[in-house]
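Example record for the data management plan.
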Amino acid sequence: MEVVECGDTFIEKVFANNPLLGNYIFSEQNLTTLHNKAKKIIDTLVTTIGYKLSKEQKMTVALSVINYAKKTGILVLEHLQILLQKQYGYRSENRVYPKIMTATYDAIMDNNRWAFALHGRIQYKSTVMIHAMGSIRSWMHLCDFLSDFYQNNLGCHYVEDDPYVLSMVMFMRGIFYASEALGEDENYEEFTVGSKPYCFQEGIRKLVVYRPNYAAKVFDRMLKRIHGYMNSDVQSSEEVRGFSR
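Corresponding structural encoding:
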């Protein structure tokens, strides 16, 4: 029997253990519980004048918002606004979306997680997408790029904290910076690296441009997993050959 954990202590642990909040994988049952709790909180916030959310309530709303964005993939700001209002049972009420995003941003800031601002202006959608970079689609695109990097540049070898990974990140930072400087707001953009085109999600691009050292650590962990998968495949095929002799 699955234990449903979405209490305050559980929420605090998710924030404490995941610098990028979308990296935590909720079970379907826990995710449903999370979204239901967030909706009740938002309903009370919208209908009760002067209602102040507790820290834990803000954290619940933030995780719910990030997981909705993570599951669906957002293209532009208007899509995020429509998605959240619909998921929490509202239509085009302008009073709802700002309250949701303020609670989300406050939770991220209060817990010393990365909240994105540009030229002194809070970027609510970008902040959500940075933390939602753990979507299946975005990781598949990133894994495609890193798998090629592992094979073509690292020669199918992995060394922990390899400085070459940071060099790669800084190279990618130069490529991404032009679109960031132009204020591009597309969730997915295609860039050609070498002779092959790759898609990179907005959150990943911003992570590389504005936090390259942390991006290098994230990529290093992914390369370690790729190396492990590659080696297990090789080992398995060798075991099969051994049994067939």
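Summary line stored alongside the record: Residues 212-244 form the longest helix (33 residues).
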